């Protein structure tokens, strides 16, 4: 049976990549279909119920700045909010929230259902319609043919998924859901570079069986952060704490004794797991000198007793899980509601993607999320947004958006994937960015919202807020750089408290004073009065932070921007698709081979390809000139 | 600059070929001889001329001036020539400084130019710019590509040689210490929930201080000239009894090696430090390459092969009177490590008759040929000249001397960044700014030892600390 409409974009998969992809495509003006195995599961958090963290929080704010849904949904579902690295400087500060799974799903589904131009359809995608080298649509398991100009595939761990609990294993995409094997086979034919990754979850526990007495409670921070630039505290539901407990030597003993029953160590699991998120059996084996590891007890929601004990993900047999869990303080009588498991799944080598996230093998087909070798909701959502946007732009015959490394963590993520590939589940860290001081949570909107507006992703409400905020910031900057403070107008009490000096030595501009690390914007306000009321309490809070950050990083940011400017040259220089690297004089065979396989989109991407030397880049530039590609 | 060609992308015109950096390099080989020329090209030429000469000379007119350091003291006195772009070799503004040569003066002059904003040119970079700015024929693309390739690989070899022995060991220790420091700082930033907050730990201050001290010690020694005075390394190779030791003695001007008629007399490496017109020359006489069962002689040959792999130049000596030279040459060439530039030297010309024998070289491994008599001194002067030319290949930018200078420059930048990193930690407790300076320090060090990618750093973090909630 043939579906009546031809869509601009079909998004397969309703996880974090799929929902952002579908929303971005629809917002960019494409007629969009979101195809999912289960509408109930759209926006499900299959791993731990938390959003954000270092690097990840940065991604969420960037998605938000581009009109995405993740931050707004988290503000409506978050039951514990924290600012990580609060003591370490604004560039590396990041927001993290525990979310109520049900509220999160509801928030996502609400936004999807109310998005004009977007339709939901519950069916399993069984096959892709491909003509020549171009995707034409999707066929579902029940034989429905749906035609589309572009397709975005966001199928998570559902391709070739296999679940392990102890030495038992079975095919599955997530505990309780079937895998998508037919699709996997179809794709393998076209894209042979396929790898296998592994991820795991801990056993879930009934909170009523936990003794919280004596466990450290961790509450929301005060002041409590909001996730979205548009977020407000009054959107947050009731706040509840997480708790922290620890494994101990007895726990480790039981785990070590059972190592012959762990599929991790018996060779049954070949997939590569993330080193920064190891299973508890891996931690015990690799760090044998540690007698204890942290376990964060994360509530799954406000209306459930189930908790997620983060830190003990495992694929050990169920009886071992029960035994070792009960050695942990507070878990002595724990009732496990769902066993922990490891899941192995296929991913396609992301070096076979273009920087637009379109596959090289099939025109019009885009990949986003775990299928590209990443892990994490935030990483998936970021790719989803880019893939959805670019699919919509292709359908409208517009050039794709290729986010730069220097402009966003989204750019760092995609460039790392398509240029370097990955051999373990890829997660964002701030150390991956060259310009960490520029890519901050607080300025994600300044960096990206104008672009998002141009692409049609940013609605009027967000745009009006952005403009008002920018206006308020520039007037305050103007005021601080023209207001001179005389020593006589500084009360001795203020000097002693803020500067730790008896008096201000000589007159200076307010902005200069703010550059001293001990002076905050609030301190200045005591001296020179407050900025004019912007009429929005969100703007006031964001403005203070923005001004302080500018003062702290003055000099650093200018230097970084100069470097970015220099590097931009190479990134705006496209390398012709038909360039025959194997025939280029002056390049070593090894580099020719690398470039031939990689087919970098720009000279900048070529320069970042592992093994390509600066001399080789110079030589490429010379050849480009010869081809007349430089004008 | 309006004369720069523009590039059209998505309807926007971008002046792409305006190179962001001003580059400088010595255009003459290092050594005490005659004139030393420094060439500077790029947008900051006028600014550099003002800093160095006090004024910008009139275009295309030789201008006698003192080259002054930051304090105004003269470094050298010589001619300055200003060629405004586009009418210059590179097509950019160009300044040429003709001074008195000599390693120390040239280094001081270059250091001053770098201080004023230029950076050291990459091998082949002047030619590349000339080409990109349309100053060279389009058909020359391949020649330019080959030049960049050849000079960058010879620069890479020079850099490798610069990194030998004690210097290398200390630089690598520094890399390790700096990486360790970054592992701790980056772990504290990226994993705040893991109970590893090293930024609050005084041990980190001590660690940073240690890196700083060992760097300062290395730089002190570098400034005393110990690492900068090493020159060209030349290895003399050839069949036993080809006259290698005689040549060494001839070049040295005294008997450095024992010479007998018995093949295999020289069993270990003989190293001599010579001086050709101010160019420091390390000549290594090797055991002759032949099949041998004598373990001492075999060890000598192993060492010879190792020395050749690191040499700037191998002088492959052949007895001009020997029979079956062609097969002999092929056998000797096969024993040489790949990629070493070889000069084929026919020896014993005093016994060989008037014409130098010619041996067609089919392998392409021989860069040039000469004919001498080590015994009578015939052709030795030409050989000395030849070695000087080798040292100054492609404007002296690929030699060991400039490689060392590059390394010391990089170490100075490392020191500056580490000082600032410590300041940020100790005075402002600004971990993320400390991290920023440490990253720049590692980038500077990476110019010597190769880049440390964030993936490697993360790998070190995961293997050092148990991360993972």
Count of distinct strands of chain B:
14
Number of helices of chain B: 14
Q: Which segments of chain A are poorly predicted (pLDDT under 50) over 5 or more consecutive residues?
A: none
Q: Work out the number of β strands of chain A.
A: 22
**Largest sheet of chain A, if any?**
7 strands, mixed
Tell me the name of the CATH class of the largest domain in chain B. Alpha Beta
Biggest interface between chains? A-B, 57 and 56 residues
Structural class of chain B: alpha/beta
Number of helices of chain A: 20
Distance between the termini of chain A: 52 Å
Query: What is the makeup of the main sheet of chain B?
Result: 6 strands, mixed
Mean of residue pLDDT of chain A?
Answer: 92
Description:
Chain A has 631 residues and is of the alpha+beta class. Chain A has 20 helices and 22 strands. In chain A, the strands form five sheets. In chain A, strands 1, 2, 6, 7, 8, 9 and 20 form a seven-stranded mixed β-sheet that branches. In chain A, helix 1 packs parallel to helix 9. In chain B, strand 1 and strand 2 form a beta hairpin. The longest helix of chain B has 29 residues. In chain B, the strands form three sheets. Chain B has a six-stranded mixed β-sheet. The N terminus of chain B is likely disordered. Classes of the chains: A alpha+beta (631), B alpha/beta (469). The interface between A and B is large, with 57 and 56 residues.
Offer a concise description of the structure.
With 631 residues, chain A is α+β, with helices and mostly antiparallel strands. In chain A, 36% of the residues lie in helices and 18% in strands. In chain A, a hairpin with a 4-residue loop joins strand 8 (134-140) and strand 9 (145-153).
């Amino acid at each position: 049976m043939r579906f009546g409409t031809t869509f601009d974009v079909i998004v397969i998969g309703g996880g974090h990549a799929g929902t952002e992809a579908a929303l971005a495509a629809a917002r960019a003006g494409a007629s969009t279909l979101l195809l999912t195995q289960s509408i109930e599961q759209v926006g499900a958090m299959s791993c731990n119920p938390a959003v954000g963290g270092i690097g990840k929080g940065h991604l969420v704010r960037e998605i938000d700045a581009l009109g995405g849904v993740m931050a707004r949904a988290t503000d409506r579902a978050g039951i514990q909010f924290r600012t990580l690295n609060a003591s370490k400087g604004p560039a590396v500060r990041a927001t993290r929230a525990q979310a109520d799974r049900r509220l999160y799903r509801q928030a996502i589904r609400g936004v999807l259902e109310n998005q004009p131009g977007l339709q939901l359809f519950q069916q399993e995608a069984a096959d892709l319609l491909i003509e020549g080298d171009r995707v034409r649509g999707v066929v579902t398991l029940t034989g429905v043919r749906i035609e589309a100009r572009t397709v975005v595939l966001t199928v998570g761990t559902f391709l070739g998924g296999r679940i392990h609990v102890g030495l038992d294993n079975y095919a599955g995409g997530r505990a309780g859901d079937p895998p998508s094997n037919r699709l996997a086979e179809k794709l393998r034919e076209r894209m042979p570079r396929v790898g296998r990754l592994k991820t795991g979850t801990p056993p879930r526990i009934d909170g009523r069986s936990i003794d919280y007495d004596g466990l450290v409670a961790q509450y929301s921070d005060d002041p409590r952060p909001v996730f979205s630039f548009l977020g407000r505290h009054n959107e947050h539901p009731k706040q509840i704490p997480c708790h922290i407990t620890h494994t101990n030597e007895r726990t480790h003993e039981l785990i070590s004794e059972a190592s012959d029953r762990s599929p991790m160590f018996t060779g049954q699991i070949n997939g590569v797991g993330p080193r920064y998120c190891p299973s508890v059996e891996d931690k015990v084996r690799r760090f044998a000198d540690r007698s204890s590891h942290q376990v964060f007890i994360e509530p799954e929601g406000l209306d459930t007793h189930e908790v997620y004990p983060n830190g003990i993900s495992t694929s050990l047999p169920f009886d071992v899980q029960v035994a070792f869990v009960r050695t942990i303080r507070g878990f002595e009588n724990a009732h496990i509601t769902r066993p922990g498991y490891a899941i192995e799944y296929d991913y396609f080598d992301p070096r076979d993607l273009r920087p637009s996230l379109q596959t090289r093998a099939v025109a019009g087909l885009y990949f986003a999320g775990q299928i590209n070798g990443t892990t994490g909701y935030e990483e998936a959502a970021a790719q989803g947004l880019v893939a959805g946007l670019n699919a919509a732009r292709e359908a409208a015959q517009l050039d794709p958006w290729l986010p730069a490394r220097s402009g966003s963590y989204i750019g760092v993520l995609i460039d790392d994937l398509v240029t370097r590939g990955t051999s373990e589940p890829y997660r964002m860290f701030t150390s991956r960015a060259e310009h960490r001081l520029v890519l901050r949570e607080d300025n994600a909107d300044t960096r990206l919202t104008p672009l998002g507006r141009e692409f049609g992703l940013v609605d009027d409400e967000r745009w009006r807020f952005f403009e008002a905020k920018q206006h308020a910031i520039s007037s305050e900057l103007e005021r601080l750089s023209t207001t001179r403070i005389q020593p006589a107008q500084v009360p001795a009490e203020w000097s002693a408290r803020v500067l730790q000096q008896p008096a201000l030595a000589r007159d200076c501009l307010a902005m200069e004073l703010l550059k001293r690390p001990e002076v905050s914007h609030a301190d200045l306000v005591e001296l020179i009065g407050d900025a004019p009321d912007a009429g929005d309490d969100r703007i006031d809070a964001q403005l203070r932070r923005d001004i302080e950050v500018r003062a702290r990083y003055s000099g650093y940011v200018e230097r970084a921007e100069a470097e970015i400017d220099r590097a931009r040259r190479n990134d705006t220089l496209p390398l012709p698709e038909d360039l025959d690297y194997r025939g280029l004089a002056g390049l070593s065979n090894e580099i020719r081979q690398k470039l031939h396989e990689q087919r970098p989109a720009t000279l900048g991407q070529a320069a970042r390809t592992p093994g390509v030397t600066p001399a080789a880049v110079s030589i490429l530039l010379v050849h480009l000139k010869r081809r007349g590609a430089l004008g | 600059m309006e004369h720069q060609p523009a590039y059209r992308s998505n309807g926007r015109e971008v002046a792409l070929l305006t190179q962001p950096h001003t580059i400088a390099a010595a255009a003459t080989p290092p050594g005490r001889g005659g004139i030393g020329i420094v060439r500077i090209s790029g947008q900051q030429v006028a600014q550099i001329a003002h800093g160095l000469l006090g004024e910008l000379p009139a275009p295309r007119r030789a201008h006698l001036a003192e080259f002054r350091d930051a304090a105004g003291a003269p470094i050298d006195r010589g001619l300055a020539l200003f060629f405004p772009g586009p009418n210059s070799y590179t097509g950019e503004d160009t300044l040429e400084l003709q001074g008195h040569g000599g390693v120390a003066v040239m280094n001081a002059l270059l250091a001053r130019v770098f201080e004023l904003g230029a950076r050291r040119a990459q091998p082949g970079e002047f030619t590349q710019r000339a080409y990109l700015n349309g100053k060279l024929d389009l058909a020359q693309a391949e020649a330019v590509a080959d030049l960049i390739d050849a000079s960058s690989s010879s620069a890479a070899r020079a850099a490798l040689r610069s990194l030998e022995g004690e210097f290398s060991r200390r630089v690598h220790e520094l890399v390790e210490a700096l990486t360790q420091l970054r592992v701790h700082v980056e772990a504290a930033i990226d994993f705040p929930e893991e109970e590893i907050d090293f930024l609050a730990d005084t041990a980190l201050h001590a660690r940073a201080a240690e890196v700083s001290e060992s760097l300062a010690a290395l730089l002190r020694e570098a400034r005393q000239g110990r690492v900068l005075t090493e020159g060209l390394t030349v290895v003399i190779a050839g069949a036993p009894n080809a006259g290698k030791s005689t040549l060494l003695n001839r070049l040295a001007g005294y008997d450095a090696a024992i010479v007998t008629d018995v093949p295999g007399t020289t069993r270990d490496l003989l190293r001599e430090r010579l001086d050709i017109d101010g160019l420091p020359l390390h000549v290594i006489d090797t055991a002759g390459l032949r099949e041998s069962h004598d373990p001492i002689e075999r060890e000598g040959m192993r060492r010879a092969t190792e020395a050749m792999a690191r040499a700037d130049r191998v002088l492959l000596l052949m007895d001009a009177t020997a029979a079956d030279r062609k097969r002999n040459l092929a056998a000797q060439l096969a024993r040489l490590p790949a990629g070493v530039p070889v000069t084929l030297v026919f020896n014993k010309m005093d016994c060989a008759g008037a014409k130098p024998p010619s041996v067609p070289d089919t392998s392409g491994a021989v860069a040039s040929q000469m004919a001498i008599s080590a015994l009578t001194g015939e052709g030795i002067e030409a050989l000395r000249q030849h070695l000087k030319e080798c040292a100054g290949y492609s404007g002296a930018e690929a030699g060991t001397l400039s490689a060392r200078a590059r390394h010391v420059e990089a170490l100075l930048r490392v020191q500056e960044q580490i000082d600032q990193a410590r300041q940020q930690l100790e005075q402002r407790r600004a971990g993320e700014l400390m991290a920023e300076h440490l990253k720049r320090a590692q980038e500077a060090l990476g110019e010597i030892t190769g880049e440390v990618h964030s993936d490697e750093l993360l790998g070190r973090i995961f293997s050092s600390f148990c991360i993972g909630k």
